[in-house]
Amino acid sequence: MASNGSARGPVRVEDLYSLEEYHRARPEFRARVLAHKKNRQVAVGPNATLYFEDRLTMQYQVQEMLRIERIFEAEAIAEELEAYNPLIPDGTNLKATFMLEFTDVEQRKEKLAELSGVEASLFAQVADGDRIACIADEDLDRTSEDKTSAVHFVRFEFSAGQIEALKGGAPLTFLIDHPAYSQQSDLTPEQHAALVADFD
Question: pTM above 0.85?
């Protein structure tokens, strides 16, 4: 039986439902995760969204992969955990899937070419402090000279002072400062509370 585990730390094998257990638990578990995710996605303008990950979202991702692929072998389960656990924040950072979203296929190809290097133009900012550059796609090569990927994995590292300020209610802004796309998003109180909880 899956346990809730701690709010932080990696998802362990013993935290997971078996395939049979997950089949029964999935409707309720999925509804809980989707409600949890609601305040963890931040649109930065019309075509870029940050989907902030945590232990629960990663457990859900692993459970869905095991379900879809019908994985039950211990070694294969361990491989899934190894792939997804690095996306869980560890108390000093926020981690997100950064997606560039264009519904039209031709427009997507054109825009991804225009947005080459956009991940290097993505920042967080606490109140009116210095911009915090994201660290993107560690161990992955997702951008070429002529285009960017539609999906990036990013993290933002915060100092102890910045974390203390955020816990005290300081505003948090995410912004993209790219020649082809300049947008920013100030968090709602609900988004702020959801993300600041990642530092606990």
Answer: yes
